[in-house]
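Q: Two folds, back to back.
A: First:
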Amino acid sequence: MTIHDDRQPTHEAGPHRTFDSLSPITGDVVASHPLHGEEDVAAAVLAARDEAAWWGALTFEERSARLVAWKGVITRRLAQLADLVHQETGKPHGDALLEASLGIDHLGWAATHAAKHLGRRKVSSGLLMANQAATVEYRPLGVVGVIGPWNYPVFTPMGSIAYALAAGNAVVFKPSELTPGVGEWLARTFREAVGRPVLSVVTGFGDTGAALCRAGVDKVAFTGSTATGKRVMAACAETLTPVVIEAGGKDAVIVDHDADLDAAADATLWGACSNAGQTCTGVERVYVHEKVYDEFLGLLVAKAEGLRADDSLDSPLGPITMPKQLDVIRAHIADALDRGGRALLGGADAVGDRYVQPTILVDVPEDSRAVCEETFGPTVTVARVGTVEEAIRRTNATSYGLGSTVFSKARGMEIAEQIRSGMTAVNGVITFAAVPSLPFGGVGDSGFGRIHGPDGLREFTYAKAIARQRFKAALPLTSFTRTEKHEQQLVQLMTMLHGRGTTLPKLGRKVRRGR
């Protein structure tokens, strides 16, 4: 279900067609990969059923040991993986190393915490059902289909793959057609460490992803654009297959008057321009308190002036991986300038054939494309606000709701709690993604469901509840031997348990939120 990039030729190779993975830096062929069709995908899912039966029957400890072994293989070959990510995406080696390292950390957390969060535990049965012993556990769904993105081909899909595997599922992974080699590398190293293809890969374009949605998997985890996410949901609806959707974003930074401005400017620049701006939780909008607006803007421009994107080995910014995105970035900048915005850095000439230079836009109308739509490039709009409340209102005035950032010394948590987004970083940027115990996901057009943390583990399970009778009930409530006397006793018991009202808080009194 990913976007078919016209720069990728297909070929006939024996019984299978193939397509090429190309370097976005040079255009050279990195490798050729199978173009899997509907029958291939169906066969992969059928084979995964057998693997799921074996894998799901293992204990948490047995699965953990195997996942930790896989983690060790990836870690020992970290440089090799980073080089492959660099070849297929064009991102700098350092960024590829960081991405892969975070993926390893999440794999380690999922492998060692699944038992704690998914294993059977006792729950209270209450006084009414005191004769019952109540337990709940979280069981694997079976086979999970993962459709991954190209911008973070290790870290992002690993948030689904690692957690689905730790929960006891087999996984069929469809990587982006721009980064198929990374997906195959992950599956190959898994089989080397574990000995069985519990993680398998199918490669191809949108038709391959659509086939995975219709192949009878027990859940699909998708990361990509909002538009493609809707098509994934439509395909999955045909078989009533549940989905996790991590879609686009239009994340904002709020800079309060008491913020550490140097840190805020540094974080804004990195959040907007790292990975050439191709980050779903990247910074695309900034709202700065008027008291510090000029100073912040001066710091941001000064830090960005020395930042360049080119094909040199030491370039901090890589190319735009998907060529069609260049048209989107160009259109957003043009619309902002045509409507009265100003480019303090970059601008109309910032978009080249492969690279986009950092662009800082000001005085951009709030209803412009650069403010309302996901740009997915190294650009950012900066706006002056009179109050933090205005900044919050503007931040929330979007259909997206993925991540956000707040810089404030005194009111950081207070502001963060008022932002409608799945995640917020306070005095940092995108830090929530690196904390394995925190759930990751959005609201609105940014999708639904969660990966990472206990929520991410449970996303790939179903809850199994068991009530076991310990002794005969005093009141035969679920029997035709129940009498009027028993019913009167039930009323008396309910009155004793629940008849007393609670005192509501007085109007106007601030109720402290849970921490």
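A: Second:
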Amino acid sequence: MNSNEIINKAKLWIKAPFDSETQNEIRELLNSDSKDLTDRFYKDLEFGTGGMRGVMGAGTNRINKYTLGKNTQGLSNYLLKTFTGKQPKVAIAYDCRHNSKFFGQSVANVFSANEIQVYLFEDLRATPELSYAVRELGCDAGIVLTASHNPPEYNGYKVYFNDGGQIIPPQDGEIVDEINKVNFEDIKFESNPSLIHIIGEEIDQKFAKEAVANATFKDTKHRDQLKIVFTSLHGTSITMVPKTLELAGFTDVHIVEEQREPNGDFPTVASPNPEEPAALKMATDLADRIGADIVIGTDPDCDRLGIAVRDLDNKLVLLNGNQTFAILVDALLKKWQKEGRIDGRQFVGSTIVSTPMIIKLASSYGVKTKVGLTGFKWIAKMIREAEGKEEFIGGGEESFGFMVGDFVRDKDAVSSTLLACEIAAQAKNNGSSVYAELLELYKKHGFYKEHLISVVKKGVEGAREIEQMMIDMRNSPVTEIHGEKVNFLFDYQTSVCKNLITGEETVIDLPKSNVLIYQTTEGTRMAARPSGTEPKIKFYFSVHTALDDTKDAKKVEAELDQKIQRIIKEFKLN
């Protein structure tokens, strides 16, 4: 889009139907010849792997009342066409971010103006509780206003379907088609208050009970003796995690008070992302002062968690997402095995960029692993397609998300936090630790080590650079990684897996996605994919080797880390 087209597009926003505040914001940008104008209008916000997410402000490439209203009007039109002969129902939740409550009410107004029943949470709530509420209330769709762990200037809009999972093909494409038909003047903002129902405590209680039922073990003792440090990182988890832990019997819980209060500025952290060690520093500092056994922090919308546990030297170490995934899924598999519930019809869910260790681990219990694209909507799809035929035990991905059972069909830091504490309590009762249990898994299945690098490329030029990087890797694949021959190139954009040694090609039976994975003869893997929600390209590395004795764990891990760093240098990514 050239500069004249951008200016003409922007000028539409300085007149009706846009309000005076919006008109003035754009008029100032036009008058000052601001470069920011291009970024606001060069494209429309689109749905990615996590819905629609962007910087707040006026413009088509921003989160605001009108872009959200347009999406909601399009979704309303879709629901009215899809669910004929009934009055559609929608549940809405929102997080702690700036404007989230206002956006939540605005979205509710549009739905109600379209004669759709709305169930709106009374105040901020965890994203997984919205997934639960959709099915519990028999809704046809759900919305969460959140931007997860993005910086404070971001907000977002996640759409869920009637199964409690995020929208997937063909629904997403059909909804986008309806949205594209909507002009801003078509949006119905005048609410029908009689169709907006406020929900809260009753759903909270049911959700907490389900979490306890799914994430605890009957034989766990002395839960009150596990010392836990928890931080909500100024987010929504404060509304649900402490009460769920208490309901399960964990009473020695110490909350990081400086981070207890929900705050969209996230004042005590550079980024409210539990993947970042710095985000959990206040929690680990507190844990060291009081001698806590485990530290858990969640992201602002409470769908992901970071965990720190004591290593063999009693020092706190942060687990990465794949390690947490392995520990949690192993515990669930043990639970199902003890209860005599494994009969060959069960499965766990994983993603193409998560650790391959999960496949080996689940197989040792006689359980298969289904591997899908990045994003929990694909795991939710697995569950929906398996209903009545197979049972879902649990699932996760490397980016610190996990799902316990299928009472929630999105990643859930509430039940995952509870499960992690349950594992820690059992290990402590047995004179062991979470870390020691992890090393035993490595000893049994191989020591797998993963690493993620995100390369940020902002704006129009950044998007072009990311696109070119993917083209180069696709058209000119490397043939060796760390001296190991690359035998497979998985191209999820073309749905082709090519054997680079024999030239043989096979079809990948997954929806198309802009992801490339190189795999060597030794099992080393490198994946690349542009982020669906942020201006960055992500590179995932996975290496592994045998661990014969847990005493050698530090040495083996150091060797794997060094190997990953050499690969990163080889690809000139450092």
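Q: And?
A: The first strand starts at residue 52 and ends at 55.
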